[in-house]
Design brief:
Layout lengths: L1 H24 L13 H23 L13 H24 L6 H27 L8 H22 L6 H25 L3 H33 L8 H21 L35 H12 L16 H8 L1
Length: 329
Amino acid sequence: MKRAWISFWVTLGLVLPIRIFAMLRYLNPQTGFYSDGGRVVGAASALLIAGIFLTVFFAGRAAVGEFGTEPLKNIPAAVLGAFAGIFVVVQSVVGIGTGFLGEGQIFYQIYSYLGILAGGVLLMTAYGFAAGLRTVGSRPILALIPSVWGCFFLVVLFITYSAAVNLVEDVYHTFTVVFLLLFLFTQAKLLTGIESAKTGKMIYVTGFPAALLSLVTGVPSCIQYFGTGETAGFISIGLHMANIMLAFYIIAFLLALRPSLCPAKTDMTFAPSRQPGKSAEDGDKPEVEENSIAVYAGFLAKVCGSGEKFIEAGVSPFYTPEESIAEES
């Protein structure tokens, strides 16, 4: 997994500055088009696609163990998860208050109300990480709420962009929501113990692209908004900030999973086995190996009543020295 992390950070370090430069220098927030014809942002997109492909490739080939049933305890993941939940709740409340004028108004209202529940689930998950409890893992229905919230967000985007999806930022926003949805669904399965053997690797395959897209989309948009007061695309500045916090939470969560998902090492230490019929009070006596001399000696002692002992060397009671010399000659 080390190569996947290196690829992730290198991709973020290359693409993010180019995206910030392109949006501040060439993007018109009112029209959503780039004055240079999209050459710079196109180069950034090519680097991003290549980086995501390499990161997912390395993550898919890495040896990842099965996530255990014990609760995960990690303070950074708890803190960032709590901030992400707060941002999602606040943005959802703002969305309910401002409303949405468009064809997907009903879906947007449902999406906003689900956002409050999803933020609450994120806060519960963060509390579980802080206290070392399975607050969400023991409740599969609650774990699925963030995924359902992501589904409705994707539906709203599809309805909004169905008329015209000719903006580069719209494409970025759509793929960001897609990978966030995949990550939230995979995390729900991981925390609840569903297909933990497969989910242990898929959490990285979905988490890395989700974090990358959220950062390279949200950070430049926030910088442009606070610099010019405008930003391109349908997603509001509040959602961009929520996506950034979700990206930080994803990174902290993946880092926290590293000890839990390491391949299990086979213990080659063999404890001495006890003979049948003997309890622990008899002592940990190792079982005698089959076909050994001790087995045959025990059999003879049982059948013939014979025994063995060590005595000092001396004259044999059965042979006299003269008889021994005569036999040898």
